[in-house]
From TrEMBL:
<keyword id="KW-0812">Transmembrane</keyword>
<keyword id="KW-1133">Transmembrane helix</keyword>
<dbReference type="InterPro" id="IPR036396">
    <property type="entry name" value="Cyt_P450_sf"/>
</dbReference>
<dbReference type="InterPro" id="IPR001128">
    <property type="entry name" value="Cyt_P450"/>
</dbReference>
<keyword id="KW-0349">Heme</keyword>
<dbReference type="GO" id="GO:0008395">
    <property type="term" value="F:steroid hydroxylase activity"/>
</dbReference>
<dbReference type="GO" id="GO:0020037">
    <property type="term" value="F:heme binding"/>
</dbReference>
<keyword id="KW-0560">Oxidoreductase</keyword>
<keyword id="KW-0479">Metal-binding</keyword>
<keyword id="KW-0472">Membrane</keyword>
<dbReference type="Pfam" id="PF00067">
    <property type="entry name" value="p450"/>
</dbReference>
<keyword id="KW-0256">Endoplasmic reticulum</keyword>
<feature type="coiled-coil region">
    <location>
        <begin position="26"/>
        <end position="53"/>
    </location>
</feature>
<dbReference type="GO" id="GO:0005506">
    <property type="term" value="F:iron ion binding"/>
</dbReference>
<dbReference type="GO" id="GO:0016705">
    <property type="term" value="F:oxidoreductase activity, acting on paired donors, with incorporation or reduction of molecular oxygen"/>
</dbReference>
<keyword id="KW-0276">Fatty acid metabolism</keyword>
<keyword id="KW-0175">Coiled coil</keyword>
C-alpha cells in the first residue's frame, strides 16, 4: 500500500512544477479563483466554492495523469498451475 505524506508531497511538487513552467495555466487558475467572493468567516461556503473550481479540478487531474505518484498496477505472475474456488490459473 502506498499512502501518506510522500505521495502528497510528490503530487504537490509536480503541480508546482507545471505551474512554474506553464504560466498561461497559472494565469487561468488565478482568473478562475478571483471570480469568487471568498468569505473566510464561513468555512462551509468557502469549501463549497472551492469544490466548484472546475479548471482547478481538471488541472489537478491532468497533472496526476501526466505524472502519476504511484504505480498504477502490480504485475503478478503465476509460477505454477493453481486452482482456487474451482477456477484454474495456468502457469
Amino acid at each position: 500500500m502506498v499512502a501518506g505524506y510522500e505521495t502528497t508531497s510528490t503530487a504537490l511538487a509536480y503541480l508546482t512544477y507545471v505551474l512554474a513552467t506553464r504560466p498561461e495555466i497559472q494565469d487561468k487558475l488565478i482568473e478562475e479563483i478571483n471570480q469568487y467572493n471568498w468569505n473566510n468567516k464561513n468555512i462551509e461556503e468557502d469549501y463549497e466554492t472551492a469544490m466548484n473550481l472546475s479548471y482547478l479540478d481538471l488541472f489537478i487531474r491532468e497533472v496526476l495523469r501526466m505524472y502519476p505518484v504511484t504505480i498504477k498496477a502490480v504485475i503478478r505472475e503465476c509460477n505454477k498451475t493453481t486452482t482456487i474456488c474451482g477456477h484454474t490459473i495456468e502457469k
